[in-house]
């Protein structure tokens, strides 16, 4: 068994990119709090925003009855927006009330929003002031989740990037796995790395503050998400080195990601094959069940999650689909270059969005499946087109071998549903 990944004769790394700068349809960065607050068990995310921000978070998270969530909203009222009240004094009171009621909090994130940025509320300075007041028990960190200039996965990138300057220094030779993964997925990845003899392995973000990793010149970073552009840049400023690899989506992507790590830490091919052979076989078998539905079908990606390029690689190479257009909010070739190398030449690669023009291209192409945000899915469904919500791909465990079948199934399901509805309509 080879661990080499076959590369197409011509990939998309050097393909012309259609750059669009128009009206966009994306969720805002506040949405990232929903998976981040579940990951960091002694952290709290306090959004400084409007009632609209609060409603968005509540809707995205669902109704939590049996547990108090680790996020909330400090509501900016009309008097705050009009400058009739001191927003900093009110924020200090809200933080004091929160910390007195929740002594378990060790990290408090002040999350900027569109309203707080419009009134120029300096949350960075507020975080410094509050850290001095509550240290060492609580560290207060600021990042922006504003939807004015960001897509929703940039919320996680901004959060992790804000954490990097405060990470302790270390000279230890280590692997730092970066990106918020569900606990079960992270455990699977750590188990594979451990079986290969790779140690120590740290995670950012850590589940608890006392497990916060250090960083330094001997830190090797393996990104698990393709949208962590600012986080990667901040880690490099601290001396860390970012591994260049495809992302662990599907059997092929997971194998390539693990092999890049294995080569860095001197794992031989025989050991690598022994550890990965069984899970690779399970992943291929699980993907094959969905390929019966996906094979030969076309897919069109609207820019939304920044997962689009790795997912296009997965669907075309492992599921037999044809990509018509792969739209993504931003393209950082230092990070997604290995994915573009594997994505065969052919689809339009677009960066940014002019939603009306892209809708025209999508309607003209009539793809079998369109991956897009919620705001576009219902209108396209009404026009008879099958869609997949991009946000579901972030909320659902989809990384590494054991989730490869679930990832393929997410794309196969809307096509099966469409076929079933068409059959019922024909029978009627």
Automatic annotation (TrEMBL):
<dbReference type="InterPro" id="IPR000510">
    <property type="entry name" value="Nase/OxRdtase_comp1"/>
</dbReference>
<keyword id="KW-0479">Metal-binding</keyword>
<feature type="binding site">
    <location>
        <position position="53"/>
    </location>
    <ligand>
        <name>[4Fe-4S] cluster</name>
    </ligand>
</feature>
<feature type="binding site">
    <location>
        <position position="114"/>
    </location>
    <ligand>
        <name>[4Fe-4S] cluster</name>
    </ligand>
</feature>
<keyword id="KW-0077">Bacteriochlorophyll biosynthesis</keyword>
<dbReference type="GO" id="GO:0046872">
    <property type="term" value="F:metal ion binding"/>
</dbReference>
<keyword id="KW-0067">ATP-binding</keyword>
<keyword id="KW-0547">Nucleotide-binding</keyword>
<dbReference type="GO" id="GO:0019685">
    <property type="term" value="P:photosynthesis, dark reaction"/>
</dbReference>
<keyword id="KW-0149">Chlorophyll biosynthesis</keyword>
<comment type="similarity">
    <text>Belongs to the BchN/ChlN family.</text>
</comment>
<dbReference type="InterPro" id="IPR005970">
    <property type="entry name" value="Protochl_reductN"/>
</dbReference>
<dbReference type="GO" id="GO:0005524">
    <property type="term" value="F:ATP binding"/>
</dbReference>
<dbReference type="InterPro" id="IPR050293">
    <property type="entry name" value="LIPOR_BchN/ChlN"/>
</dbReference>
<dbReference type="GO" id="GO:0036070">
    <property type="term" value="P:light-independent bacteriochlorophyll biosynthetic process"/>
</dbReference>
<dbReference type="Pfam" id="PF00148">
    <property type="entry name" value="Oxidored_nitro"/>
</dbReference>
<keyword id="KW-0408">Iron</keyword>
<dbReference type="GO" id="GO:0016636">
    <property type="term" value="F:oxidoreductase activity, acting on the CH-CH group of donors, iron-sulfur protein as acceptor"/>
</dbReference>
<feature type="domain" description="Nitrogenase/oxidoreductase component 1">
    <location>
        <begin position="28"/>
        <end position="401"/>
    </location>
</feature>
<dbReference type="GO" id="GO:0016730">
    <property type="term" value="F:oxidoreductase activity, acting on iron-sulfur proteins as donors"/>
</dbReference>
<keyword id="KW-0411">Iron-sulfur</keyword>
<feature type="binding site">
    <location>
        <position position="28"/>
    </location>
    <ligand>
        <name>[4Fe-4S] cluster</name>
    </ligand>
</feature>
<comment type="pathway">
    <text>Porphyrin-containing compound metabolism; bacteriochlorophyll biosynthesis (light-independent).</text>
</comment>
<dbReference type="GO" id="GO:0051539">
    <property type="term" value="F:4 iron, 4 sulfur cluster binding"/>
</dbReference>
<comment type="subunit">
    <text>Protochlorophyllide reductase is composed of three subunits; BchL, BchN and BchB. Forms a heterotetramer of two BchB and two BchN subunits.</text>
</comment>
<protein>
    <recommendedName>
        <fullName>Light-independent protochlorophyllide reductase subunit N</fullName>
        <ecNumber>1.3.7.7</ecNumber>
    </recommendedName>
</protein>
<comment type="function">
    <text>Component of the dark-operative protochlorophyllide reductase (DPOR) that uses Mg-ATP and reduced ferredoxin to reduce ring D of protochlorophyllide (Pchlide) to form chlorophyllide a (Chlide). This reaction is light-independent. The NB-protein (BchN-BchB) is the catalytic component of the complex.</text>
</comment>
<keyword id="KW-0560">Oxidoreductase</keyword>
<keyword id="KW-0004">4Fe-4S</keyword>
<keyword id="KW-0602">Photosynthesis</keyword>
């Amino acid at each position: 068994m080879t661990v080499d990944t076959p590369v197409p004769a011509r990939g998309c790394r050097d393909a012309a990119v259609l750059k669009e700068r128009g009206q966009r349809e994306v969720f805002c960065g506040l949405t990232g709090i929903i998976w981040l607050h579940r990951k960091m068990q002694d952290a709290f995310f306090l959004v400084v925003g409007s009632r609209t921000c609060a409603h968005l978070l509540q809707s995205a998270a669902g109704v939590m009855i049996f547990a108090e969530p680790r996020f909330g909203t400090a509501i900016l009222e009309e008097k705050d927006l009009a400058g009739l009240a001191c927003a900093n004094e009110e924020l200090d009171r809200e933080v004091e009330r929160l910390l007195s009621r929740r002594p378990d909090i060790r990290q408090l994130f002040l999350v900027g929003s569109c309203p707080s940025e419009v009134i120029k509320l300096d949350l960075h300075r507020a975080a410094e002031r509050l850290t001095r007041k509550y240290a060492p028990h609580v560290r207060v960190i600021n990042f922006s989740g504003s939807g004015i200039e960001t897509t929703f996965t940039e919320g996680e990138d901004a959060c992790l990037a804000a954490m990097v300057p405060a990470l302790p220094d270390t000279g230890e030779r280590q692997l730092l796995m970066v990106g918020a993964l569900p606990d079960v997925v992270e455990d699977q990845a750590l188990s594979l790395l451990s079986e290969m003899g790779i140690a120590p392995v740290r995670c950012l973000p850590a589940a608890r503050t006392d497990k916060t990793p250090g960083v330094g010149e001997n830190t090797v970073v393996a990104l698990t998400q393709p949208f962590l552009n600012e986080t990667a840049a901040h880690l490099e400023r601290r001396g860390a080195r970012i591994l260049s690899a495809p992302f662990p989506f599907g059997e092929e992507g997971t194998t390539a990601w693990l092999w890049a790590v294995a080569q860095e830490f001197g794992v031989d091919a025989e050991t690598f094959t022994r550890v990965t052979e069984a899970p690779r076989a399970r992943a291929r078998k699980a993907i094959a069940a969905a390929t019966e539905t996906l094979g030969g079908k076309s897919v069109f990606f609207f820019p939304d999650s920044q997962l689009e390029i790795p997912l296009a690689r997965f669907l075309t190479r492992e599921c037999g689909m044809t990509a018509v257009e792969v739209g993504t909010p931003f393209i950082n070739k230092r990070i997604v270059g290995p994915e573009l190398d594997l994505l065969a030449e052919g689809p339009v690669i677009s960066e940014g969005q002019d939603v009306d023009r892209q809708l025209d291209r999508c309607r003209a192409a009539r793809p079998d499946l369109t991956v897009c945000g919620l705001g576009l899915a219902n209108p396209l469904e009404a026009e008879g087109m099958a869609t997949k919500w991009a946000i579901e791909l972030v909320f659902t465990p989809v990384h590494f071998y054991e989730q490869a079948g679930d990832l393929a199934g997410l794309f196969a399901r809307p096509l099966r549903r469409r076929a079933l509805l068409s059959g019922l309509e024909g029978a009627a």
